[in-house]
Amino acid sequence: MTASDGRLVGDLAKAIDESDFAWSLVLVGEDQRDKLAALTGDLLGKPSSNGDGKQITSGYAYWGIGPTIAWAHACADPFYLVMKQSLDSFTRRWGRVRGRVGEGFHHVSFGVGTGHKDRLILEHLLEHNQDLLYLPVDMSSEMLRLGTREATHRVGPRGHRVVPVQLDFSITDNLAELRDLVHRLVGDEPVLYSLLGNTLANFDHDDELLANLTALARPQDRFLLEVATTEALSDDLARDAVEEYSRSRAYREFVTSALLHNTDLTITVDAVQFRGSVEGDRALKVKVVYQNQTGDDILMMLPDRTRVAFPDRDTIRLYLTRKYARRALDGIVRAAGMRKVTGTHSDFAVPRSAQGFGMDLLLLAPGDPVPAPRPDDDVARVIWEN
Ligand SMILES: C[S@@+](CC[C@H](N)C(=O)[O-])C[C@H]1O[C@@H](n2cnc3c(N)ncnc32)[C@H](O)[C@@H]1O
Q1: Cα-to-centroid distance, 198 and ligand 1 (Å)
Q2: In this predicted model, what pLDDT tens digit does every residue of 162-181 receive, in sequence order?
Q3: Which residue from 70, 105, 272, 333 could staple onto 254, CB 3.0 to 4.6 Å apart?
Q4: Where in this chain does the record put each Histidine-specific methyltransferase SAM-dependent domain (predicted)?
Q5: pTM for this structure?
Q6: What number does the ligand 1 atom closest to the CA of 194 have?
């Protein structure tokens, strides 16, 4: 880089820091035309009555301004329990965990969402590192804009220390590039990575995703993982999970908004269905599908203007989510090559929620599990950490 290039970067940073206008400098990691082609491909799947053909995979559910606004509405809906509880109780749960993070950390947030949780994390990290770099990573540039503004409003860091990255983090090659970028920016200084809001549960190959994301962490780094959990697994509880999601109209509007914005279907939220099942010994699984219930075979126009058949009773999988068995969490973490440093659990404290549903927030570090506590270990500390 020449001296004049260096000056340009410095001037840009200064202009952003000193302006009252809400500039945001976003690193766009992928060609958005390729993303549109991938979405189109996913909507060309074979007919299936149970959501195994056409689908909208995780990042696309939030991609674009319509889905972003719909997501923000759903998060504010008291009937969308998982997110409502997750957001409401995050201050308390993060308060229990943050003391174990350490000092001098930068923050890389996978899936910024509305940015409320990142804000709390930044507030804490900034107390120990005024020069912190904040890299929210999200597939949706609109979500990045919304979430980053909320996360940094009045808490800092300074504008040029905020580097939003538009990237699909489910693609392994993207993560290799991201790793290089992060390491170039922070050197050997430690990074707190986070994957919050039960985002892990939205991926078909969630175990693979977790392993790929946590592989970015070096020994000095930490990884904060938040997942929805259940004490037990049964068909009855799978039905309770379905019931929990199906209550919120705002949630139905969110899950259909990608269809509304990328096809010419006339959307009715009554055609949204929830299918619950038990996924082995690890989770309750909920598939959210859109079913053609018109009684007719219809044609649907895709983003590239091709028309495909959407036969009567055919489905499009809109969203996938899970509640992980609490007893399966250690295995999931271990399989991703991580160990638990500390963790906290909170039950859903609402009468409408099924017994045993809650959220777990885990602080992880690379490496083998810590040995079981010796009998002479401080009992109060052991209880507190588990
Ligand atoms: C369930 S929301 C969680 C938001 C936030 N972390 C919270 O806890 O409130 C998932 C977030 O991850 C982003 N996301 C989902 N799949 C993604 C992918 N494959 N690549 C990048 N971002 C993705 C979405 O745009 C959204 O911001």
Answers
A1: 9
A2: 999 999 999 999 999 999 99
A3: 70
A4: 70-341
A5: 0.92
A6: 6
